[in-house]
Sequence to fold (96 residues):
Amino acid sequence: MEATKARFLTYTDKICRDESGRIQDGDILLPKMIMRFKNGLLHGENEPAISCTDGHLEYWKNGKLHRDGKPAVLSIREDENGNTYEEYWINGERIS
Fold:
């Protein structure tokens, strides 16, 4: 299996807090991405928890990369060589 394209593995099971020390909840809009949190963990419900402007998406559930029956890490835009990628993850474990 090739190296993962996941960019945010350091967030696995990590409780994130805002500048005031409160547990992060809801959408965070950053210059080149949107991050979604629930109870401090990356969690996107039915949306990607990470959406980057370059087309990179990551689906997280309760602080783990996870998506049932569909890719959890993917690119919706082609790179300079015309390639896209998809990776399937269940409960933080890569399965393909």
Notes: The chain has a mean pLDDT of 96. The CA atoms of residues 23 and 72 lie 24 Å apart. The first strand starts at residue 26 and ends at 30.
